[in-house]
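Researcher: Go.
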Amino acid sequence: MASFLDTAASATGQILSTVTRGLLDLVYPPRCLGCSARPESPDLPLCPRCLQSMERAPTMGVAARLDRLPTGQGLFDHALALWVFDKGGTLQSVQHAFKYGNRPRYGAALGRLMGSAYAEEAELPEGVVPIPLHRTRKLERGYNQAQMLAQGVADTLDRPLRDDLLSRPTPTRSQTDLSREERWRNVRDAFAATDEQCAGGHWLLVDDVLTTGSTAVAAGLTLIGAGADAVSLATLALARQ
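Model: Structure:
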């Protein structure tokens, strides 16, 4: 009963928040978060010029980051990050507005860009799996930013969104101020997957920012442990280190 009430309260809060945000956008139309120009679409927080100027994350850089974790070496069939994340840069403004500024609609548009980049480089998966949030964190935020991105990726790749495959039953600390070792200890047992649904598939994990790779690796190992044949990874950003 409590879970149902929590879910209903979260949904109601999200609806009210979305309506409020929509009214504010009518009064104060969205601006590009890079240069303050008017973007072509209110669902995309960057104008064409700023989109062109975003630094693409090198594929080898993503692989090298994951390889720093012994359990991450060779785990993913393919791993891609769309852009490089610099503190204080344009992408941080985009990510903070999307993740903390109640702009879930940015997710699908950004996810479509991720999906297009992935389709140019890798074999299509059977389904797209967002990194899940624990229930309490999702209630606090009102939505899962990875799921919003994953929906855009799934739409572009014409593959199903499989947000039922992976769950996060264990609450974890924020990763922001943790060291590499602390991040891995924090999330290594955080996820669970259903064996009969994961088995035999090639699944594309989606998240917003790849920093040390601990969260992605923990989630990927969980899917492999549940019988997945292969796991790939796509993130919006690769944190510069």
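Model: The CA atoms of residues 72 and 118 lie 20 Å apart.
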